[in-house]
Amino acid sequence: MAWLGRTATLMLLVAVLLASASSPTAAAAGQEETVIRLKHSDDGYSYNHTLAHILVEYASAVYTSDLTSLFLWTCPRCKGHTKGFEVIEIIVDVENCLQAFVGVAPDPRSIIIAFRGTQQHSVSNWIEDFFWKQLDVAYPGMPDAMVHHGFYTAYYNTTMRYEILKSIKWARKTYGNLPINVVGHSMGGALASFCALDLSVTFGSKEVELMTFGQPRIGNPAFAVYFGEQVPRTIRVTHQNDIVPHLPPYYYYLGEWTYHHFAREVWLHESIDGNVVTRNETLCDDSGEDPTCSRSVYGMSVADHLEYYGVTLHADSRGTCQFVIGAANSVYSYVREVNGSIILSRYPEEPETLESM
């Protein structure tokens, strides 16, 4: 009869998700102010409010399905703080419904890598499935570290990793040894995390910064410790009652057999006093599971998952994996199909092995 309990739980979860997704965000007329609360020492790496507002726009832009406007950086989301960005490569893994881009930004002057998250119209199903995900892969070279198979495979066992490493090598050869910022939202945050870890091992931890928005847990406590050592320049932003950072569930009594977030979390949440709305940005402790940050609330909101810093973070089309490429343009004269993936690039294919990178 265990399946009856699971079915009831899923039905309740879906009901809550639908309610939260359709409920309007409460707004109070009156004054607004933003308060950044530093609860603990930042250990030498500070949360940058301005940088977060810039990077969230890249995390939003990667959802664009019109690949031509994305490559030319003329899409509606390719404005604001990201003006002047130059896309080097777009990778679309059609079979696995993955999308990422690599490019060079003028401010901050760096290489930006952005990963797309789950499509808006499949979020509920994806979250429902996530309640039952198990730690099922031993992370290579790290005793006791376990990770989520799907996220690990999506980065390491697809065309994503090869193309991203190749693009970074070309960008650094062309533009100089620029630092690297990796960003992603939702599932894209999980892929961005594995990418940042990979790049930190390859290029050095001081060369790579990671910022994710509403990402799920991806590994166990041992992996979280290892990740913190290898990618110390990490900010994991959560928003109010966003459900996804609460998944897969964390059970402290299971020790190394439970999922566990890595640090450092910045929790965005509102407080209302009379007609004054205070937007708090709280820098949490270095445990990854600060009980006074997002874990202090019941994370059951899909609406809070789809917007960070007032920026929309979901696809601009209803199709699960739709994309459009316009007429051939000299700007991206290199369009390739590799193992079911579409690659738009500024540079010609240069055959190399990963070992040579």
User: If helices are DSSP runs of H or I spanning 4 or more residues, what is the number of helices?
Assistant: 8
> How much helical structure, as a percent, in the residues?
25-40%
Termini separation = 53 Å
**Largest sheet geometry:** 11 strands, mixed
Strand-residue fraction? 15-25%
How do the SSEs run, as a string of H and E?
HEHHEEEHEEHHEHEHEEEEEEE
- Low-pLDDT stretches: 1-29
Tally of strands: 15
**Helix/strand/pairing category:** alpha/beta
| Lateral arrangement of strands in the main beta sheet | 1-11-10-9-8-7-4-3-2-15-14
Describe what this molecule looks like in 3D:
The protein is 28% helix and 24% strand. By secondary structure, it is of the alpha/beta class. The strands form three sheets. It has an eleven-stranded mixed beta sheet, with helices on both faces. It has a two-stranded antiparallel ribbon with strand order 5-6. The protein has a two-stranded antiparallel ribbon with strand order 12-13. β5 (137-138) and β6 (146-147) form a beta hairpin. The protein is globular and about 55 Å long. Residues 1-29 have low confidence and may be disordered.
Labels describing this entry:
357 residues, alpha/beta, 11-stranded mixed beta sheet, two-stranded antiparallel sheet, 8 helices, disordered N terminus
Secondary-structure blueprint of this entry?
Blueprint: H1 2-22, E1 31-38, H2 49-61, H3 67-71, E2 86-93, E3 98-106, E4 109-115, H4 123-130, E5 137-138, E6 146-147, H5 149-156, H6 159-175, E7 180-185, H7 187-203, E8 208-213, H8 221-230, E9 234-239, E10 265-273, E11 276-283, E12 307-308, E13 311-312, E14 334-338, E15 341-345
Parallel strand pairs: 1-11, 4-7, 7-8, 8-9, 9-10
Antiparallel strand pairs: 2-3, 2-15, 3-4, 5-6, 10-11, 12-13, 14-15
Helix pairs in contact: 5-7
